[in-house]
Structure formats: C-alpha cells, structure tokens
Design a protein that fits this description.
The chain is mainly beta. The protein is built from no helices and ten strands. A four-stranded antiparallel sheet has the order 1-2-3-8, with no helix packed on it. It has a four-stranded antiparallel sheet with strand order 6-5-9-10, with no helix packed on it. It has a two-stranded antiparallel sheet with strand order 4-7.
C-alpha cells in the first residue's frame, strides 16, 4: 500500500479507509512521570470508515509516529491532553474516531504516521507535512 498525505484518505482494497484531521499543537506544562515541561506535542483525530462487508475489530489499533531523516520515534503523550483510543467493533458502512497525541517538535521534518489496524491489514502510512 502506498502512503497518503495527512490531508488525504488511505483506502485498503477491501474498502476500509482512514483519514487524519484536527491537528493541534501545544506545549507540555505539567510535571510528572514521562512529562517534559516545555516539550512540544501534536494531538490529532483518526477516523476509520468500514467500507468492507465484514465487521472490523478496532481493539488492536496501534498508531506510531516517527520524524526526521533518522526516523526518531515520537513518544506518545497520554496525559496533559485528552485522547481517546479507537475501540469496539465497526459494522460495515460505519465510521469511528479516535484521538492520539505524540511529543513532536514544531517543524519536525519527514513526519510519518503508521496506523496498524490489526493482523489482517498492513499498517497504513501517512507521510508529509502536518496540516
């Protein structure tokens, strides 16, 4: 599967599709385990549309993000911002949304999001400049 831009829809041959949207940036202000005060982050929405004829289990969705020529891993951010994992079973024709956050410097080059849906689909790849 080819990569999609962060403003495009990525579609599998079976009709399952995903988009990314609602990108917002912020700076970590809180203190605590895993938090770095002043670190920049991005939070965004992932929408999955089940265009297939089968139910789609969303319980195994795992997003990961890398950036730069060296493919630095962007650490997920679980506090400081509100996020909601994709969960449940998606019936044919239905859509579901989840939100995710990663520590990511503003202007990070070569940003790539890998969206691993489950064991029966290859990970979707979104690549490019964030909106």
């Amino acid at each position: 599967m080819e990569s999609a831009s962060f403003t495009a829809e990525a579609v599998y041959a079976d009709g399952v599709a995903a988009t990314t949207s609602d990108f917002n940036r912020g700076v970590v202000e809180g203190e605590g385990l895993g938090l770095v005060v002043g670190a920049e982050y991005v939070v965004f929405t992932v929408t999955i549309r089940n265009g297939s004829t089968q139910d789609l289990d969303l319980g195994a969705v795992v997003p990961s993000m890398v950036y730069g020529d060296e493919r630095f891993a962007a650490a997920p951010l679980y506090s400081e911002v509100e996020t909601n994992d994709l969960t449940g079973t998606l019936k044919p024709g239905d859509s579901a949304e989840g939100s995710y956050a990663f520590l990511l410097p503003a202007g990070a080059p070569e940003t790539v999001l890998y969206l691993d849906l489950n064991g029966s689909h290859q990970p979707l790849v979104f690549r490019g400049d964030l909106p």
